[in-house]
Structure prediction request, 66 residues.
Amino acid sequence: MSIVKIIEIMCEGKSVEDALNNGIQEASKTVKNIKQVDVKWIHAHVENGKISKYRVNAKVSFVIEH
Prediction:
């Protein structure tokens, strides 16, 4: 039987994919066995009529080793 823990992260990038990759890369520095990411919401920051960056709030699931 596996035990899965879920943490919530907020990340930022030039695209949604970039934001998620940045968030997972940073989380991977201290969290092992990441298996899944569920996006809760996406915000786009607009400057001069164009999207300048995306902010993503996501739940990250990982398996606890025991």
About this structure: The mean pLDDT is 96. Residues 3-64 form a domain with the Dodecin subunit-like fold (CATH 3.30.1660.10). The chain has one domain: 3-64.
